[in-house]
Amino acid sequence: MGYLYHKQLVYLLFLSVSLASCSPNKQDFMQCMSTQFGAFTKSFATIHNSNSSLYPSLLESSQQNPRWLNSTAAKPILIVTPFQESEIQSAIICSKKLNLQIRVRSGGHDYEGLSFLCKTPFILIELINLRSVEINLTEETAWVQTGATIGELYYNIAKASGTHGFPAGICPSVGVGGHFSGGGLGTLMRKHGIAADNIIDAYLIDVNGKILDRKSMGEDLFWAIRGGGGASFGIILSWKVKLIRVPQTVTGFTVAKTLEQGVAKLVNKWQYIADKLHEDLFIRVIIQDIVGQNNGNQKTVQAAFNSLFLGGIDRLIPLMNESFPELGLQAKDCIEMSWIQSVLYFNGYQIWDPLEVLLDRNTRYKSFFKGKSDFVEEPIPEVGLEGIWKRFLHEEIVYMIMDPCGGKMNEISESEIPFPHRNGNL
C-alpha cells in the first residue's frame, strides 16, 4: 500500500456503499438493469440467482481450490455474465443503488477465493464471455479482453506469428484479468519483465459506469492497475499489450536429483547464481516429496531443475558448463522447440500436442490446498534447507517452487508500476 501512497493516488473507487437492511432479490436487480440500459439488456439470461440451473456450475467453473465450495462460504446473491460493456455499466450502477458489493472474476484461478467471496451481500460479475484476442503484428501489439485466459492469448499469438510471444505465466488456464492486474510472473521475466511491465493501454469502467482508456483515466490510475490489483479501482474490460520477439528455437530441460544424489548442494549453489545467469536463461527449481525407487521405496525429497533457454543447445551447454557445471547438464537432457511448444512443455504437455489444448479453461490440477508466496533477498542457509527437507518428509503432499529473478527484473525501478519486487530479490 505504501507504493500507492507514493504515487499520491486518489482513485480508491469503492464499488458499493453501506449495506441495506434487507437484501435485494433478482427482480429488484433486473428492474434496475432494465431501467439503466433497457435497450441493451434485451435478455436477462445473463443474470443468475441461486435458483437458476446454471448458478452452481457458474460459481464452481473456475474454482481451482475446492475448499471454497463448503456450505459455510458466503455465495453471491446473483451472478452476472455480461456479453457487452453496457451490461457491466448497469451492473455497477445497480449494485450501488441496491447497496451491494461487487466481486469480479475473469474465469481463471483463485487460490484464496478473493474474487468470489465476500462477508456482506454481493454480486459476482463473471467476465468469461468477454474473451476476444486481437493481434496486430504491424504494431506488434494485442488487445486482449479480461475474460480470456493466458492460454488463449498464447494460442492466438502463435497462430499469427512464429516469432512473437508474451511474458506471462506458465499455466494456460489462468485468467488474464487477475494475472495482469497482479503482475504476472513467467519464464520470460528475466528477459522481458513481467506481464504488467508490457501493458501499454487498457479500457476500464469506473464506479460511475464511465469507460476510460489510458488517456482519459490518467497516468496515476493507469499506473495503479498494472500490478496493484485492478479490481480495487474499477472493472477492466481489456488490455493492450506489447508483444515481444522470441527466437525460432528455444531449449528446455528438466534435470531431477534426490537427497541421495546430492540435491542439497545443488539447490544451495542455485540460490547464489540463478539471478545472475545470462538473461536468456531461466532455471526454476521444483521441490517435492517422492517415494524413491533407488532407496528401498523410502520417502525422499526431489528437486527438479526446470529450464527455458532462449536459444539452441549449442549455446546452452557452454553457458551451463561455465555457470552451473555442478548440475552436469548434457545435450541429451535438452529438447529444442519453438516458444509456443515451450508453453506446452512447462505445463506438462507433450511438445507435439495440438495447440488447442491451450484453449481448455478447465484447471488440470484441482485439489484442496494452501498456497503461499514470498520473495527472497538472501539465500536460505544450508541448515534452513535441511529443515525444509525434514518438514517435507512429514507431509503427505507438498511442493515448493523457486523462480529466479535478476536480468530485466533488476533494471526496472521498484516504483515503475505497483509491483515492487525488483533489484535485490533473488
From TrEMBL:
Its keywords, alphabetically, are: FAD, Flavoprotein, Oxidoreductase, Signal
One MF term in the entry's GO annotations: FAD binding
- Required cofactor(s): FAD
Q: Where are the transmembrane segments?
A: none
Instruction: Output the Pfam families linked to this UniProt entry.
Output: FAD_binding_4
Q: Which residues form the FAD-binding PCMH-type domain?
A: 72-246
Specify the signal sequence span.
1-20
InterPro entries referenced in this protein's UniProt entry, alphabetically: FAD-bd_PCMH, FAD-bd_PCMH-like_sf, FAD-bd_PCMH_sub1, FAD-bd_PCMH_sub2, Oxid_FAD_bind_N, Oxy_OxRdtase_FAD_BS
Protein family? Belongs to the oxygen-dependent FAD-linked oxidoreductase family.
Protein's UniProt name = FAD-binding Berberine family protein
Q: Which organism is it from?
A: Quillaja saponaria
